[in-house]
Predict the 3D structure of the following.
Amino acid sequence: MSELVNKSLLGTAGLLAAAAMLVSCQSSSAANDQGTAVRAQADQGVTSRVISELSCSEGSEALGQDMTSGANWSMCFSVDIKLGMVLENVTFTPPNAEPMEIIDSMSLSQLEVPYDDGGRSTSDITSAGFGGGNMHSLTEIECPGTLVSHGIPTIGDGSKYGEIESRPVLCSDTVDGGLSYRSAEVGQLLAKRKNDWQLSTVSKVGWYEYLNQVTFGADGSIRPALGATGDLSPVDYSDAEHGSAVGEGEEHHASSHSHNAVWKIHWALGGTGAQQVEQYDTKDTNESGEQSPIVEGNYTKINEPATAQWTDARWWKVSAPGMLNADGHVMSYEIDMGKTDGFSFIDDEKNHGADADTDYDVAFTNADDCHIYATYNRGTCGRGVLDFVKNQSGEKLQDVVSWVAVGYHHVPRDEEQSPMEVHWQGFTMVPRDLTAQRLDVPEERSELNGRPEDWQGQLPPEGN
Ligand SMILES: [Cu+2]
């Protein structure tokens, strides 16, 4: 498989993969000793320039990747004992533009796994943790790209006992991202493929193994995702009402369960405290024009910390009202929920009652260092997201953190023994008006921005 991927990248993407750079900010551990990590000298174009301006804290690694669009992604990578992979100072540089910090920090903030027979529920981030010994070393099989070593404590968080051991825990991989565009006009074909940059780690919690992955697109998109593999839990077998027969006949029913994940994204777009959040909805007016129903699209401002629920055609945008693109439009990122199985955390229902609005899909709060976990949070700021929202009620929402909840209800199948095929859940953040045109406008289309000036009312030819 890795060969296939690599072959498909022999074009531009393959060359750009060589430009991926990793610069260690670690002072103590010589992370080079695995021999697999790349430590390129900082003299390779955009990546080196952006990385040199990143101030990654001690114990974190500066990573960068030039993309097929000519844009660049750079950021600081570190591993938290509980949260696992943490990405900070996530910076995007469009072609021929200055670097823009998009995200201050991002990570998972909880993963709850409740079993449908009622017998067991775990909160894997706060109880087990994705870092430390639970974060496994990777090989070339899991990672056809570049293995990156990072200092991981051998005991606990390393503050009291044990030592820091440099292990290859991060996979940095550029893969073919499919077709970026195709447009055939007046006999001329414009088409281009794109690459994706994937950062991933693997954490083992019980019988499950989780792939914690963030994909950075050549188009400026950011796609966090959680993949689950390993094995079905041998502890959690029940009956036909609460599970599926996975062995011969009708004897062994592996219990259905949910993987309830919340990602925390602290935005940096436009600078700390400079953001605004809006929710987009469409409204069917029940009126029709000559050929189609008339649909109204509206933005509603979310002025104070709040929770929100997804519905068809609804999405949110985090914008920086002080920053305009060359078209004079406010720069923003859009949060799109993928297919998600909605959920309420058990801990939230216990503490806020079953009738409360506990099953949010996204929540927005102002950044607070005490807000770490979506549930089982400690400190005076609250036990979880619902408390954070409640305690900040009436505050102006401006230093925006989005808590994105994506659930996956898992009904076991015969095919999941054994090991289990990876199943994925995640969401997407897409730039909206970050730049005035696409990042890599082909020369032939450089003037096309708005309704074409030479358009004189022609309709597309029949059969087009
Ligand atoms: Cu599962």
